[in-house]
Prior knowledge:
2 copies of one chain form a homodimer.
Chain A (H helix, E strand, L loop, with lengths): L7 H5 L3 E2 L4 E4 L12 H14 L6 E9 L7 E11 L3 E10 L2 E11 L7 E2 L21 H4 L1 E7 L17 E7 L7 H7 L6 H6 L5 E10 L3 H7 L3 E7 L2 E3 L2 E9 L5 E11 L2
Amino acid sequence: xxxxxxxxxxEATRVTAGDSCWQGQTSDDYWAFVGPFGGVTAxxxxxxxxxxxxxxGDPLALxxxxxxxxxxxxxxxxxxxxxxxRSTQHWSVEMTQGAEVATxxxxxxxxxxxxxxxxxxxxxxxxxxxxxxxxxxxxxxxVKQYDFxxxxxxPDFSGRPQAAPAxxxxxxxxxxxxxxxxxxxxxxxxxxxxxxxAFHARRELMPFGTVSLTxxxxxxxxxxxxxxxxxxxxxxxxxxxxxSYGDQTGELWSPNGRLLAxxxxxxxxxx
Amino acid sequence: xxxxxxxxxxEATRVTAGDSCWQGQTSDDYWAFVGPFGGVTAxxxxxxxxxxxxxxGDPLALxxxxxxxxxxxxxxxxxxxxxxxRSTQHWSVEMTQGAEVATxxxxxxxxxxxxxxxxxxxxxxxxxxxxxxxxxxxxxxxVKQYDFxxxxxxPDFSGRPQAAPAxxxxxxxxxxxxxxxxxxxxxxxxxxxxxxxAFHARRELMPFGTVSLTxxxxxxxxxxxxxxxxxxxxxxxxxxxxxSYGDQTGELWSPNGRLLAxxxxxxxxxx
Lengths: 271, 271
């Protein structure tokens, strides 16, 4: 049931090694409004790095800058190991379609050594997933690939007039619709799987696009595998919307209370 | 008094345009333990972009990955405009010394258009700067270039045994020691001017280094200039320390209560 190799997510993030660069293909299953869901784009970049023969260690940080709309179809990934030392690797990845750069990413991989360990953040209280209703109100392709269950902050897109902006905080369970064991790839994708905070604040949909996304991994592959989870408890919020751009911060927790990843992004909106 | 052109910070972040790349020089005034203060490195990269003849718009996002120790002396900045459209520019910057890449950065610049505006985050309460004592307990060169005044969470490096890790939260006023009007450059630098959260948690100094730093600007040059500020109210906290890496999040507020920038980083520590 949790076999990852034939899952739609693994199909969507598939890459093949070429001569000077790698190739991938957008997935209709994870399509958003005018291009592929950014989380799957980010996960595809991460997969190419994880599969790279020179890669050592586990993902520590990935930043993806979305430079242009990605057209349906094939793309190339130009991957470059910029610097490596005993325990870390610094990578650069450019996703191109023809002569155009669509995304520009940097990544850090690390062989994480044992150390003093302390989780400063507290595991958020939440209703158990079995007692939380699935969210089924949006029929965008990528959204349908996830099982979203809002504990707090379910979006209200009714767009009804209101005196003040609504809360931008959300707490929800996120799993793949077809269950899939959580790994760094799905964490990367889920770190972009929150609805735009501007939608929450204004209670309406509007033109919106992530410009830059950064995710930090706080668990290595062994740590993540040991959680044996198929969902995360996810938190998202925003601090500001100003002159067409707004931020978002997020946390992805294992059901056992381990903070697996934190994420932040800045996004364009038109309102 | 607030003339920015002869300030030590402006000397430290000075760059000159060359043929195929730009040049800069590390500053002893902003030296840290084993290399230049990362904030000044990040600000130097930002200055080269702001000064670049092809640059349009204002800084929106800057991510700097610190790949290797930067040696005292000269460095090159290889600057590339990767993609531009009507309102945004995507840049890549590599700082090199000889054949070695020392830092790898990506930046987004944007011409920010008027929009609906809303500051979701609340301006933190703080004692006025005049009633807050300067912090003078550390004599590292870069630290001496700043006027730090802790409202909460002044670090305690006594290293005395304790039952549990200490708080990682800090709230402080940060200004340049020699007053300098806040701009995007100083915001970039100040976003790395918090003491390592691991130092706070463990109440001791230890080998520590920022690996990746991301700052988002929530105000354009006009907005920042209109604040006419020479200090920010700065907040920092951490969520987790695990297997030699820990995170940090931060906010930089104008004294008038405007959120100018948010920042996050992941850092190596040895403990």
